[in-house]
Amino acid sequence: MLEACHLRKHYVQGRWYSRRQFHVTALDDVNLTIEPGSTLALVGESGAGKSTLGRCLSRLEEPDSGEIRIDGRNLWTLRPEELLAARRNIQLIFQDSAMAMNHRFSAAEIVEEPLLIQKSMSRTKRRKQALTLMEQVGISSQWAQRSALEFSGGERQRLAIARALTLKPRVLILDEALASLDFETQEQIAKLLLDLQASFSLAYFFITHDFRLAARMANRIAVMWKGRIVESGSVPAIFSEARHPSTRLLLAAAPDAQDDALARIPREH
Amino acid sequence: MPFLVRRVLYSLFLLAGVSILTFVLVDLAPGEFFDEMRLNPRISKETIAGLRSNYGLDLPLPLRYLRWLRSVAKGECGFSFSYNSPAAPIVWRRAQNTLLLTGTATLFAWLIAIPFGIWSAAKPGKWSDLFAGGTLSILLAIPELILGLLLLLLALRSGYFPVGGATSLNFPQLDFWSKSKDLARHLFLPCLCLTAGLFPLLLSHVRASMTVVLESPFIAAARAHGIPRRRLLLRHALPAAANPLISLFGLSLGALLSSSLVIEGLFGWPGLGQLFIEAILQRDFYLVVDAAVLATIFLIFGNLLADALLYTLDPRIRDD
Fold first, then answer.
1. Distance between CA atoms of B261 and B277, rounded to whole angstroms?
2. Contact assignment for B223 to A84 by CB distance below 8 Å
3. In what order do the strands lie in the sheet with A65-70?
4. CATH 1.10.3720.10 spans which residues of chain B?
5. Contact between B226 and A163 using a beta-carbon 8 Å cutoff
6. Which chain A residues are Cβ-neighbours of B240 within 8 angstroms?
7. Are strands A65-70 and A2-14 parallel, antiparallel or unpaired?
8. Mean pLDDT across chain A, nearest whole number?
């Protein structure tokens, strides 16, 4: 459904007073496909280009070359009204959702804001839908008037998920969405995400550096290293047949991930 | 103690300090109003001594300060020697003229600077941004005085705008509409000059604080959720960028009485600035003190207003 073909992205950093430039190849001929209703995990060490890929897929950044296609159509050549529809379908969740929310807005305002794009919806209906979603992600609607700052990290991540879900998207791009949470909260949110996936038939693009989480969440895993996708396959395949040295390194960093993954093999993809 | 009460008390304290300091400094300045009379051989020493004691100038300074405070309470604010009348009405009439000029200029500068700043911050590197940057550099580089002289030259050559004063000679005979028109024509050039001086400063601040906010993650997140650009700029970015601008607004209110000193002189605008300079040159003691204290009141009031605005708009400032 959401495809990336031959994506390339290159950053040049330099200062106006110096001729020295730093070249960073963030994406180097990246190809991948996100299937409807399933989870693709993107694993890689920091600086591998994972976030750049996520930002390109959500159209926050423009790749130098290559195409991003949604339902076979190029995301960068859509007409404005088509783009609006496409944007609804791809939503992004960040690692630090405290920074990603406007502190002047109340929880309900944050959740309902994306609905403003649909101008036809009335105020009360918007609010009602926002409150329902808040309950669905496990936040009491009594807290609707609180500011984003008054929630804990895990609750804020739930709010971010609710906000992303308001437009009934088909793909959620989760950029290290669980990384800054403690183990227990991670488990809760991971469970919430899996439940929501089942009830909304969502596709996830799950960006992480943690093989354990990737194994918990994903049907397929792609491993990224220095801007390239060096390996991809189903979860058990990656665990048992990993060849690339960077994959081995990341696997070694999550020793109990393999057990988790093998215990969960029946999960279909 | 509530925040605002504390701020008001602090302001009063500050005001007392400034007025005492002004009193002492003006008194320390060499010479006084009656020095010129002393040079006149036909006026006897006794006459001058009589005048001085009449005005209370022979009293010690703390006592004179207390007498001045009492006359402030009566609404007279001391006595002008050169105008031979209570100081308050003289100062206030001139201050009104100054406020008309600077108030209009400040209002216009803000009204132009805010949309322009947002616009140029929203599209960095685009032509609007470059245009704003260019205008900024040019306006910042031209001293107000030069700009004022250029405008005066233009007015003189074209003959459309009057080159001095606040009203025409036949002003009292005009009806309301003609009065307003006459005033507006006199106001135009000095106001333009002041606006041109203030505008680039405000523009650069609006632009800078908007740029910082537009780079923050919550704007990126809102963008990713598909929030329209207009709402993004006005509803998300502008309130978040407002804090430094509100402080600046307070400062620009505070400068209302003091920012137009040069321009008033240049355009012959009968404002407080001219009166202040005259009063200093003539050692018209209470006029100097009153003008200085009035300018301070504006400064304090401007800052107080900015604090109150920040207090209501930003919850983070409240928790003390």
1. 9
2. no
3. A21-34, A2-14, A65-70, A73-74
4. 90-318
5. no
6. 102, 104
7. antiparallel
8. 86
The pLDDT tens digits of the residues spanning B9-39 come to 999 999 999 999 998 998 888 888 887 777 8
pLDDT-derived band at A261, boundaries 50, 70, 90: low
* Residues paired with A65 in a beta bridge: A8
Taking the whole predicted model, whether its pTM rises above 0.95 is answered as no
**Candidate from A60, A103, A117 with C-beta closest to B224:** A60
Q: What pLDDT shows up at residue B245?
A: 92
Q: Is the dihedral of CA A161, A166, A172, A175 positive or negative?
A: negative
Between A101, A114, A117, which is nearest B218 by CB? A101
Tell which of A106, A113, A147, A166 to mutate to test the B interface (max B CBs under 10 Å): A113
CB < 8 Å to B221, chain A: 92, 94, 97, 100-101
d(CA B111, CA B93): 27
Q: How many CB pairs under 8 A join A and B?
A: 50
Nearest to B218 among A59, A87, A100 (CB): A100
- Whether the pLDDT of residue A61 is over 70: the answer is yes
CA–CA distances in Å: residue B136 to residues A201, B110, B114, B204, B220: 53, 14, 14, 8, 28
Count of H-run helices and E-run strands, chain A: 10, 10
How buried is residue A106: exposed, middle or buried, by Cβ count under 10 Å (0-12/13-18/19+)?
A: middle
- What residue ranges do the domains of chain A occupy? 2-263
Residue A223's SS3 state is strand
Shortest CA gap B238–chain A (Å): 11
Residue in A59, A94, A116 nearest the CB of B217: A94
Answer CATH for A2-263 from 3.40.50.300, 3.40.50.2300, 1.10.1330.10, 3.10.20.30: 3.40.50.300
User: CATH 1.10.3720.10: does it fit domain B90-318?
Assistant: yes
ipTM of the complex model: 0.72
The full length of chain A comes to 269
